[in-house]
Amino acid sequence: MPKMTFIEKNGNALEVEAPLGLSVMEISHKHGVDIEGACGGCLACATCHVVVRPDWYEKLASKREDEEDMLDLAFDLKKTSRLGCQILMSNDLDGLVVALPGAPIPWEK
Ligand code: FES
Hints:
Elements: E1 3-7, E2 13-17, H1 24-30, E3 49-52, H2 54-57, H3 65-71, E4 81-83, E5 96-99
Parallel strand pairs: 1-5
Antiparallel strand pairs: 1-2, 3-4, 3-5
The structure holds FE2/S2 (inorganic) cluster.
């Protein structure tokens, strides 16, 4: 099964199993990672915002316009911010690394 890593707000890097087809937001919920996802993945809240490590950001499917619009409302927006409910796990994303907003971001040091 693919894996992915969440950088949590305290800086801890948590590697978890990431079932194919689940979104990053759904994977975070399975593992008790602190991502809200208030709208359940229907692009209406931006509380599933994650900051993607730049090398992975380039590999993601491009953003839809409604994701762009919703991201504008997100807290602590970065150049590689995405909505976690819009990133679906695939074999190509095995090893994906994302940080929670507000976390110390290791690749920005
Ligand atoms: Fe609401 Fe992603 S869960 S926009």
